[in-house]
Design brief:
The protein has 303 residues and is an alpha/beta fold. The protein has a single domain, classed as Indigoidine synthase domain (Indigoidine synthase fold). Strands 1, 2, 3, 4, 5, 6, 7, 8, 9, 10 and 11 form an eleven-stranded mixed sheet that branches. Helix 3 runs antiparallel to helix 4 and helix 6 runs parallel beside helix 8. The structure holds pseudouridine-5'-monophosphate (PSU) and manganese (II) ion (MN).
Length: 303
């Protein structure tokens, strides 16, 4: 991907030139992960949360075939409301650029782009991973591949609950991705606060995380680091409830032959309906909470 295709907004460029802290945000959760108008609210509040912590937010997306670092309000609104926004991962990004389309970047594409221009931190909701039933269809998110190919410090609430979390957890280890957390002994389960999979390190404060990441930088470790931040307590949903909704929505996806890149958005939206928007509220809260933590860690890391 040539930097020529990339337009960086001035505030972000200045911050990068002056080694100030910048946090990347993705756009697929705006266009495909959350419904309107919650998607716009989350996009705006995530930017606000990053800025409250003294860092600069860089929402990444594609407008008319141009990669934009730091989408403005109109561009966010376009990706949040237009029906023709593509979800781009590495396999289809250049096709989208070729056609001069509007597109939203997944975790995989966002970290690929952001790391190339020197951004070190990224906040999202839940990463993609190994899908349930992957032994039959090999559906494994490109997020995992890109995590192992680019160094980015990523704040998330684990991998999305709709995935095979055990396989995802193991695959992260195979790919050399540290799984550390902020105040939890376990990897979170996205909509619920704890899985049974233990983290590599539970950090109790932001200073320790920032200092640990400095050690990572010195070890010539070329893959990403996952810093887990569980969903806020009041929004965490019981695991059994979540699993029931997941099973129902997976059945529906099978009946309707939904697969490939359409599967994740389909399941999330079905589960929002089944949960009477409890999962939507959790998703909203955790994304903004992750943006805030990313801003704080990044600020500390750069100070
Ligand atoms: N986090 C959310 N909602 C989302 C996503 C993440 O809270 O919709 C998006 C991310 O962009 C992630 C993508 O990269 O879902 C994973 O899609 P797939 O399983 O098709 O790789
Ligand atoms: Mn997939």
């Amino acid at each position: 991907m040539s930097p020529k295709n990339i337009k960086i907004n001035k505030k972000i460029k200045d911050a990068l030139d002056n080694k100030k802290s910048v946090v990347a945000l993705e756009s697929t959760l705006i266009s495909h992960g959350l419904p309107y108008p919650e998607n716009i609210k989350v996009a705006k509040e995530s930017i606000k949360a990053v800025e409250e912590s003294g860092s600069v937010a860089a929402t990444i997306g594609i407008i008319n075939g141009e990669i934009i670092i730091g989408l403005n309000e109109n561009e966010i609104e376009l990706l949040a409301t237009s029906k023709n926004v593509e979800k781009v991962s590495l396999h289809n990004i250049a096709i989208s650029l070729f056609h001069k389309h509007n597109a939203a970047t997944t975790v995989a594409t966002t970290i690929n782009i952001a790391s190339k221009i020197g951004i070190k931190f990224f906040a999202t909701g839940g990463i993609g991973g190994v899908h349930l039933g992957s032994e039959n269809n090999s559906d494994i998110s490109a997020d995992l591949t890109e995590l192992s190919r680019n160094r980015m410090f990523i704040i998330s609430s684990g991998a999305k609950s709709i995935l095979d979390l055990e396989k995802t957890y193991e695959k992260l280890e195979t790919n050399g991705i540290p799984r550390v957390s902020y105040n939890s002994d376990y990897m979170p389960g996205f909509w619920y606060d704890e899985t049974i999979y233990t983290v590599d390190q539970n950090f109790k404060n932001i200073d320790d995380i920032a200092n640990y990441l400095k050690v990572v930088e010195k070890t010539n470790h070329n893959s990403s680091v996952l810093i887990f931040n569980k969903v806020p307590k009041k929004n965490s949903i019981e695991k059994d409830l979540v699993e029931n909704w997941i099973n129902q929505s997976i059945e529906k996806a099978k009946k309707n032959i939904i697969r490939g890149k359409d599967l994740t958005p389909f399941l999330i939206s079905e589960i929002n309906k089944l949960s009477k928007n409890k999962t939507l509220e959790a998703n909203t809260a955790l994304i903004i909470n992750n943006a805030l933590l990313a801003g704080k860690i990044s600020k500390k890391f750069n100070s």
